[in-house]
Design brief:
Elements lengths: L5 E12 L2 E12 L3 E5 L6 H8 L7 E6 L2 E2 L5 H5 L2 E4 L11 H6 L16 H13 L15 H13 L5 E5 L7 H17 L4 E6 L11 E6 L2 E7 H4 L2 H8 L3 E6 L2 E6 L7
Parallel strand pairs: 3-8, 3-9, 6-7, 7-8
Antiparallel strand pairs: 1-2, 1-4, 4-5, 9-10, 11-12
Bound molecules: adenosine-5'-triphosphate.
Protein name: ATP-binding cassette domain-containing protein
InterPro entries: AAA+_ATPase, ABC_transporter-like_ATP-bd, Metal_Ion_Import_ABC, P-loop_NTPase
Keywords: ATP-binding, Nucleotide-binding, Transport
Length: 268
């Protein structure tokens, strides 16, 4: 099903590699302005699903529409230019400044494309995005000298450079200390307010890393969806325990979630 507001629509999708079903029967519908969290244990298939929605992999069976284009009937490289994909493990080896790295989001390349130069307007937009992620102090800093948290925020600015309608965030808080994680989550909440038609999917296995502005959740286990829908309906003690195959109790405080092992009640 695709509607004028559809950003992602998958219909009974399987993805098979080396004879193994990495994803099975995935049917998902994501609209503009929705912010999804994709949760699952190690090896559940989260990155595989994200790589398909990021136009890096085709489904083996079923159909996938991203931004109105059906995978298999569209130039994947061209489609990728409209999707912001943030992977904190993304390597940048060239000694570029933060501003330069953000500008490479326009060409979606690890370095500046030879003979390409940004316009004054593009540089101004890069600076605006850098500021909106609280990185203005670091705009001229060299990439290798930044911390992991600063890299994470700069990579989000980079992904937004091409004005994507879909933002994919693959474990953006990995390796961040407490303050850096909180700054990243605040930046994401602010971004979602600033760009109301943007849709996003954030992958994590930690409930503490879910931004308060998250609207929907999808839980996967062994490549299958076990629950999906509005975040408050999906993130329940029962669903999360099933997803991670462990008795987990979850609570929500001021919009954020906390998870801990459920201790069985003692009798008497
Ligand atoms: N090309 C491939 N061929 C065969 N199996 C693969 C291939 N790529 C990934 N897998 C397997 O698919 C499963 C899902 O991997 P995926 O990386 O999507 O999981 P994940 O949920 O992102 O896990 P994690 O939380 O550990 O990052 C894993 O068991 C992985 O080993």
């Amino acid at each position: 099903m695709t509607t004028p507001n559809s950003v992602v629509s998958t219909d009974h999708v399987d993805l098979v590699r080396s004879g193994r079903y990495l994803l099975s029967d995935i049917t998902l519908h994501i609209e503009r302005g929705q912010h999804w969290v994709l949760l699952g244990a190690n090896g559940a298939g989260k990155s595989t699903l994200l790589s398909m929605l990021g136009a890096f992999a085709h489904p083996t069976h079923g159909t996938v529409h991203v931004l109105g284009h059906q995978l298999g009937r569209v130039d994947m490289r061209e489609l990728r230019a409209h999707i912001g994909h943030v992977n904190p493990r993304h390597r940048i080896d060239a000694p570029l400044t933060v501003r330069d790295v953000v500008l490479t989001g326009l060409t979606n390349t690890p370095e500046f494309v030879p003979r390409w130069a940004p316009t004054a307007g593009q540089v101004a937009r890069a600076d605006e995005l850098i500021a909106s992620l609280g990185m203005q102090k670091h705009a001229d800093a060299l990439w290798p000298n930044l911390s992991q948290g600063e890299h994470g925020r700069a990579l989000i600015a980079r992904a937004l450079m091409a004005e994507p309608q879909l933002l994919l965030l693959d474990e953006p808080a990995t390796g961040l200390d407490l303050a850096a994680r909180e700054q990243l989550l605040t930046a994401l909440d602010e971004l979602r307010v600033a760009y109301p038609s943007l849709a996003s999917i954030l992958v994590t296995h930690h409930l503490e890393e879910i931004p308060t502005t998250t609207t929907h959740a999808v839980l996967i286990r062994d490549g299958r969806v076990i629950a999906q829908g509005p975040v408050t309906d999906v993130l329940t003690t029962g669903n999360i325990s099933e997803c991670f195959d462990h008795p987990i109790e979850i609570t929500r405080q001021r919009g954020r979630w906390v998870a801990q092992t459920r201790v069985p009640e003692t009798v008497g």
